[in-house]
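Dear colleagues,

As part of the handover before I leave the project, I'm documenting each prediction I ran so the next person doesn't have to rerun anything. This entry is a single chain, and its sequence is reproduced below.
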Amino acid sequence: MWINPGEGTRADRKDNDRNGLIDDIRGWDFAANNASVYDGPADDHGTHVAGTVAAVANNGAGVFGVCPSAKLITAKFLGVKGGTTAGAVKAINYLTQLKRMKKINLVATNNSWGGGGYSQALYDAIRAAGNANILFVAAAGNSGINLDKTPSYPASYKLPNVIAVAAIAPNGKRASFSNYGVKSVHIAAPGVNIVSTVPSKSNGSSYAYMSGTSMAAPHVAGAAALYASLNPCATAAQIREALLRLAVRDPQLTGVVQLNRRLNVSKIRRELACGT
């Protein structure tokens, strides 16, 4: 987990980095408006997603993420009663501000959430993130609908930093629940019976299987981090282009996603040289 260098490692009830948030050492909970970004077993969805992105490798336990070297920042706006679009906007703006003010290498946000109609404020927040060189990886949604005909947000925002992700089953075909759209959904990734981390129980670490486009999106977010780790000079646009270019063109995904793309992490490699 990332640690905010402006706040230190221990809570002192002070806003040391003067961003208006007290003790945001590992991020912020915009639903509860506090620094408690982990609230126990109810956080199984977020913990599962986080494990797919960056669970530690070679520790002899459980699973490892697509990019185990990545650090995770929590910008939480969903609680047990759901969340609001206003909370989502605050979370996205918080991360954009972190990158701009602290110059951290924030590559992408994983957005395994959706709901609500079009929001200009949310559109503007995602666009601002893109201007700060941050990709916005969005789960396509689990209603089995065609997003070309019925948009679902935030996956359906037409912005150059958005990557909308559909879910596929182990047989490579679209998961029955997954939203799709040859114009609106950019790539597909595994999203059925994905094993990953969940909140620990009293007897130690815990893992579980989950399904959804929420599970597909972090495969792509992890791949973005992996590509960035190998190509540190790559811009958000270059990372996005590489992930889509290196994807497998799978005929089973005809009519499902743009150009039948399926994520192919095995092709990610060092491609760019830092210019002067």
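The two ends are 32 Å apart (CA to CA). The chain has a mean pLDDT of 94.

All the best with the project,
I.
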